[in-house]
Amino acid sequence: MSSISIIGTGNMARTIGARAIAGGNTVEVMGRDESKAADLAKALGGGTTTREWGTAPAGDIVIVALLHDGVVPAVTQYGDALAGKVIVDISNPFNPTFDGLAHGEETSVAQEAAKAAPAGASVVKAFNTVFRQVLEKGRPDVFIAGDHAQAKASVEAFIKSLGMRPLDVGGLKMAHWLEGAGVVTVGLANHGVGNLDFALGITELRA
Amino acid sequence: MSSISIIGTGNMARTIGARAIAGGNTVEVMGRDESKAADLAKALGGGTTTREWGTAPAGDIVIVALLHDGVVPAVTQYGDALAGKVIVDISNPFNPTFDGLAHGEETSVAQEAAKAAPAGASVVKAFNTVFRQVLEKGRPDVFIAGDHAQAKASVEAFIKSLGMRPLDVGGLKMAHWLEGAGVVTVGLANHGVGNLDFALGITELRA
């Protein structure tokens, strides 16, 4: 089982926190608003703790559950407090019309977060192609990308503890295309596929 | 059932042609090398015909089964012969390291083909996230993108005739992100997922 710190107190923090607890992991939450963090910890139960925003997380895996434009600022603000951590970026940096990314260049929030992260930290992209409703109740495929095998292995173990299937797509550069896969997922939702109750995944050959 | 013209005589032309015949569609093949086209038509059977390269196809749906850098030149060369047709681009314009696209800008082979296509033609992106082995024998999800509802409806009907499930991701602009999803698919294959015997798709919520 893993020790998880979640930066953020919103819907995604709540959803991932609940699954993490259910999967037998240790969870702490960190919110800019300490009362919101305390409320979330209480709601999650299972021994969930809180820790002051910006201080060194207890968890080996730090999940940044913020809106996409808050991820790099948070990693920058935490700075050396994230040294040695596995930082998980789950964000979807959609453009205003949801048919492209907010950044024009071929980069990703995950790659930018890696630039902002301290030495010894490692960023892994994960979970962004899974709608929240499925993350809450389902057993979806979870695509991951990252440059460090050990960091990816620890995120894979965490994903398995949630009853989900981790699928490695390659180095952190691939986070750009996973963010693009997030765009595809929303495109499907906007064109008649499901009701935000599906996830991207793979299907093995079936004859 | 649909009337299909396939431009190209390679592996993908053979694979799609065979599935199209098995699905009860009418098929013709068009090759620069007429003897190769004749050989393929014979191999496909089911009344498959050939037609001279560059002349107006008989099919309502024209599948361009060429390497990605051959698609726009072929559409340009055919020119007005494609007027009124639904042109299907199935290509994956990978970069040399297979972790990105050959074109740096946020475009796609499908969008460039649409610029080269004559008035009244409509381009639909489809099939590029399905490995050939699965296209040959499986019943995968097939993502499609295009700007014209009627063209997409005809491609969807064709896909259903193959026993596959069409999933609309939106306008032709989304072809860029479907090409990115092709990059993700290859990334998965290169990192231990399957043996080119899977396809990208969606999974509905399963508790």
Features:
Rossmann fold, homodimer, 7 helices, 8-stranded mixed β-sheet, 9 strands, STEAP_metalloreductase (chains A, B), NAD(P)-bd_dom_sf (chains A, B), 207 residues, P5C_Rdtase_cat_N (chains A, B), 37% helix, oxidoreductase (chains A, B), alpha/beta
CATH second-level architecture of chain A:
3-Layer(aba) Sandwich
Radius of gyration of chain A, in Å, reads 16 Å
What are the segments of chain A in which pLDDT stays under 50 over at least 5 consecutive residues?
none
- Averaged pLDDT of chain A, please? 96
CATH class of chain A: Alpha Beta
* Biggest interface: A-B, 45 and 45 residues
What is the percentage of strand-forming residues of chain A?
A: 15-25%
Strand order of the largest sheet of chain A: 3-2-1-4-5-6-7-8
Detailed description of the structure:
Two copies of one chain form a homodimer. Chain A is an alpha/beta fold and 207 residues long. The first copy, chain A, has a single domain, classed as NAD(P)-binding Rossmann-like Domain (Rossmann fold, 3-Layer(aba) Sandwich), CATH 3.40.50.720. The first copy, chain A, has an eight-stranded mixed β-sheet, with helices on both faces. In chain A, helix 3 links the parallel strand 4 and strand 5. Chain A is globular and about 40 Å long. The model of chain A has no long low-confidence stretch (mean pLDDT 96). At the A-B interface, helix 5, strand 7, strand 8, helix 7 and strand 9 of A face helix 5, strand 7, strand 8, helix 7 and strand 9 of B. Strand 9 of chain A pairs antiparallel with strand 9 of chain B.
